[in-house]
Structure formats: C-alpha cells, structure tokens
Amino acid sequence: MSDEPQPQQPTPGWASRESLAAGAAQAAGPEGSGKQKKPKRPKRTGWGRLIPTWRMVLGTFLVGVLLLVGGFFLGYSLVQIPAANALATKQANVYLYADGSVIARDGEVNRESVGLARISKDAQHAVLAAEDRDFYTESAIDPMAMVRAGWNTATGKGKQSGSTITQQYVKNYYLAQEQTVTRKVKEFFISIKLDREKSKNEILEGYLNTSFFGRGAYGIQAAAQAYYGIDAKDLTAGQGAYLASLLNAPSQYDVVAHPENRPAAEARWNYVLDGMVKKGWLTQSERAAQKFPAPRESTVSTGMSGQRGYIVNIVKDYLISNEIVDEEELDRGGYRITTTLQKDKQDAFVKAVDDKLMSQLDKKERKVDTYVRAGGASVDPETGKVVAMYNGIDYVKQYTPNATRRDFQVGSTFKPFVFTSAVENHSETQDGRVINPNTIYDGTSERPVQGWSGGRYAPENEDHHDYGDITVREATDKSVNAVYAQMAVDVGSDKVMQTAIDLGLSKNTPELTPSPSIALGVATASPLDMAEAYATLANHGRHGTYTLVEKVMKDGKHEVDLPERRERQAVSREAADTTTSVLRSVVQNGTATAAQAAGRPAAGKTGTAEEDTAAWFAGYTPELATVVAVMGQDPETAAHKSLYGAMGLPRINGGGAPAEIWGQYTRDALEGEPVTDFDLQLQTGADVTAPPSAGSSDEPGSGDESGTGAPEDESGDEDSGTETPGGSAGTPSDDTGQDGGTSTGGPTTGGASTEPGPTGGADGGDDSANGGTTEGDDGGDTTGAGGGDPETGTIAGLPTGPGRERQ
Length: 807
Known about the structure:
- This protein is α+β, with helices and mostly antiparallel strands.
- It contains 22 helices and 18 strands.
- The relative contact order is 0.10.
- A hairpin with a 6-residue loop joins β6 and β7.
- It has a five-stranded mixed sheet, covered by helices on one side. A five-stranded antiparallel sheet has the order 7-6-17-16-15, with helices on both faces.
C-alpha cells in the first residue's frame, strides 16, 4: 500500500462550491496542475448589500402582482352596483333678503328623461366628441387618462378629469360628487361592472339624461327646451355642439347670461365640431356651413319671474366664483342663503324704474321702445354690501341680468376716475400747472391732445361747441371731451387705468386700455362694477370688495365659511374727496340736476355710450352709491341699438331717465334716515384757480404731428361729422348754460370754499364763470326737448375709441 494520500470519493448529497472545486482539482492530477483555480465569489459588503438581487426583484414583482390581482377581485366582489342616488328628491336652495324674508326657492328639478331614439344623432355625436370620442370602442375605464389627469392636476395644469362617459354616468347616477379616494374607488369598480351588465347605448342614454347643462336643466331634453325651445330629437349639429360645450362649464358658457364669455364658448363649440369631423360624424362641407347657434333668452319657469330669477342666478355666480360653494353641490340643494339685499330698497328700485322709464314706453306705437332695457346696482359705501339691484322687467321675459353685464360703454361716468387719478398722482398740465378743480384747460372742440405719441387724437365736444378756457369743474359740469382727453394724457392713461382698477373696476373689464380715449368711457363695465367704484369715492377712497351674501347654511346646521372682506385705502382721501366736490357741482349746476330729487347732498356724473346705445347716471350720497343705466338691445338678435326716439324723446341721455330714476330711488331708499352732508378733506389749492400759460393750450405737442395718425382730412369721418337725431340738427341745445342759462332750482353756490355745507361747500366756485346755474345739457331739462350733450370724438391712429360718445 502506498503512503501517498488517495483521492477522496465524492460525499453523497449537497456540497459547498469550495469543496467541489477542491475535489475537481485533485481529480485532475498532474495534467491539470497548470490550470488556475476558479476565484471565490466576493461577499456583499457596505452599500452593495442594499442593492436587491434579481431574485429579490422578481419575487417582489410576483408578490405585487398577486396582491393587485387579489385586491381587484376582492374589490370587485365587495363593491356592488347601488341604487340610484337621491337626485330626484334633492332639496331646494332658499334665498333670503337681509331681513330673513324669502326671495325665491330653486328646488324644482328640471329634467325629462328620454330614450336614445328621441335624441338626435347629431346631438349624441356632439356629446361624444366633447367628452369621450372613443366611447364605443374603449373599456369602461381609461387608466392612462386617469394617470394623465392626476399628473396634470398635481403639476398645477388645472383640475382635470380622466373619467370616461361610463365613469361620469356612474358618478351622476349612483354616487355623490365629492372628490374622495373612496368615491373614486367605488366609481372604478361600479363602472367595470356596469360595462358588463349594460350596453353602450344604455350607458350613453343614462349619461345624457343625468348630466347638468346649466339653467337648472338636467338631461339633454330639458337643456334643448331651456336653450332652444325644441325637443332633443330636433337638435342640429350646431345646437348639439353648443349643449355639449356646456357640459364643460355650464354657468360660464351660457352666452346669454355671460355675453363677455362668448369667445371662450365659441372656441369650445368649434372644438366639438372639429372632433365630429375627425370621427367621421360630420362632413367637412357640413362643418363649414355651421354658424354659432345663439340660445334664446326666455327659458325659465314663472317661479323665477320678476327680479327673483336674476337675483338667484347672480347670487349663485357669486358663490361659485368666490369658491364658497361648488357649482354641483349648490345645485344639489340644501342651502339657506341670506343675501345683503334689503327688501325695501329692492322694491324702491323696481318702482323708480317703472315710474320714470317703463311706464313711459309705448311698445306698440314705437319700435324703439321695444329695445329699452334698464340695469342698476346700489351699494352701501361703508360696508360694501349690495343692497339693491335692477336687472330687467322680468327674468322670464328678459334673461340677461343687466346689473352685471359688461357689454355697454360707460361713457362719461368714467371721467371722475381721470380726475381722481390726477389728484392721486399730483399730476400737472403740459405746461407744469398742478391739476385741481380750478385748473384752466382749453375746451376747444376737436383740439388735438398734446403729449400723446400714439397718433392724432382730437375728440369733439357736443355739437362742435368750443368752450375756450374753462376750469376743470366747469368741464366736468358740461362733460367737455377736449378737456378730459387732454387730462388723461397729462396724468398718463396707464395711471388712469390703474386708478379705475384700484377704485373697483375689474382688471379684465373689456376695452379698459391705456389711451386718451379711456377718458371718454369706451370701457364696458357693468352697473355693479361702477357702483363699487363710486362707493369707493363716497367712502373717502377706501375700497372694500362688494359682497352679496351675509350667511350660508347647509342642511340647516352647518354654516359655510365666507371669505373675509378685504378693505384698503385705494386712493388718498383728498383725491376721493376732491372728486366728490367736483361731482357735487355736476348735480347742482351741470348735467345731472334731475338727481336733486333725492332731497339730499349728492354727487354724480352722467354718461352716454357710443351711438346713444346706453345712457348712465352714477352718483352717491354719504350713505348710498347707486348706478343706473338705460340700454338699447334688440330682443330678437340681442344686437345693441340706439335709443333715438325712445319714450317719444329725441334721445335718452344720462341726465334724463337714469338721473330721474336715481333721484326717486335714493329718496325712497333713504326715507326716514337722517340727512347728512359730505365730510370732505380737499386737495391743497383746490380753491385756487391756476391761470394758463400764454399760448400753452393752443398749439399741439410734438406727439400730435408725428405723422403716425390719420391725415387731417380723414379726422372728420363718422366719428365727428355725423349728425345724430336729437343733436344740433333741428333740435335746440341747452349748451349747459354757457350763456347764463335759466336756474333749475338747484342750491345756490357761493365762492370757493374747502368747508362742506348744505349750500354746496367746496362745490361752489365756478358759478361766476358759468353765468349762473344751468338747466343741464344731459337731461337737466327733464322734458327732453332740448336734446342732450353728445361727446363725439375723432379718433385717428388709435385701436379703440367712441364714434359718438357723450356725457
């Protein structure tokens, strides 16, 4: 037997890698002695131990899949399709005056369910094009859309929905609207089950019958009646596309209630029609023939007649836009909403409009009288509460709320904002004189403004009247365009625009742009906007956002939080108070003497829109700021119409019906309250007349001859040379008493004074130059026989401006 060690036999069973390797090396004998041994696998140390192996990854994935599959089947088995929700028994919302008396209840559910066969194919396709173009080919849920919507919402691209029509129907019909994880999980499983149990047509039919289209209409049949007065089976492609557009934003895309949102509504409408073409549901030629189908106005039940329907919808918009209550939640009902409106003042407003305007119309004999509309709003300057509104003769007959619409020019009611801005910014004339109520300007008609580099701008005064040298106070009394256009440039039209916004106008007010024409009121603010701004002047320059709601209760026990009212000093007290002193003179001596009927110290300004399509009076006492507008609109086409000949008068101007309505309303609304005078702190030097520099106001500035504007021979086009009914042709003009007009019984004013008083205080100071108090060119003569005070303007080289803008 050899003494050499013998190779070991393999041990049965498992062996370590190291022992197997060693045994293999020994078995190789001398021949394998030249080969290297296989290196040992290093042990995982440090951070390497934290990196999962492929076995761990695979194991985790398999476990995750099992959990997901198990969770899905568990959820599918546990979540059952419930009974329909309680929409059919939804509660009413109750709207109350400030004293607790009921304005209206909106609890009636306007819905009529119809079969899919009774809904036109065009309407069906329009809804699919708007909401879910692949409805018939996709599953009940769209995971990618849900992920995309969640990502967009999380990254700040707006709150979006990733729901299919099936999911939306489940939410409408079976579940509540709250945005919770539990509700979304239920929606997910119910949608899958429903898709297995119902056909696509049944689901689409259910969706069309439960969706909310605005105007209180649930379902497409109710919507077809509400917007077009027809059945759903008769809807055209254009009409169906508009109704489908409403699903995206029912309250905002109603172009009758919100004419300012029409561009956005039309864009959505075009998107829907383009989608129909893309899916082959509409030919290109049919698409090209489509015209936007404007909905009708009168679409509501008599339960909302009179002012009630207007108030309910304006308050709803207020609650939704201020994010106090979600639109869908509000429509579900159960809310008790106490408004700031005061019943006695609301009734007084309606009566004043009826007495001074509506009762004077003869719609059978005068077609123009059918165009007449009225709107107004009244605000407590100290609290910002809206205490009364007038929106139209009847919500059932005229749907558009005239107190909040933003599509008529405000005219010269904007001029006080120019003067306020001048005082606020310590502005000077082109020759360095501080602008105050007694600063002298050149009031020559069609005088080109100085210092404006944007092109020639030479607005015309009424009847081409040249006033020559005139104080700012007199120019405000007589609403002299030449003076205020120049003042806007002296101040800076951008500063004027900012002052108007600070006082209360929305920065999104249409046509509110920096140019000299801003002074003539080309902007289209609403009466409520203007009332808010004038309330700031009445409140000595302190602005607080207006409010329409005092209290909101849900289900009688949960009080809804209201936004805290914000108040700030928008302009200095001296700027606001000095403006008030000037506007007092307009009521005492100028175009608004009819407002003296209020029987209280009052300040205000008249205004007329281009082509006499609207006449305004905006005014205030220390206790109440109120704006009244009389507007012209065709009841069939909704086009703006001139009011020449309305009420049997040559024209309706701001000093006529609007100021008369204001006077009666203010008197009645404040009946029984003590009479108080304005407490004014005036601008330094407001009682000192600044003489003009020699020749300073007679020559245009360098900016006027830059050649960028229209040629001289084009400046007298329709904007300045057109005679208008009730103007100089054939109608005598009062000319605001520049020759010493007859007294209208206004308060006697004495010399300039900074101390307010019942006889005029700081407002007196220009009567000696005026030749005495006047009858008023804008309706001071309440018979209307004397015409008005048109502020026509010649605009060349400017993007915006009035054609015939008046005081």
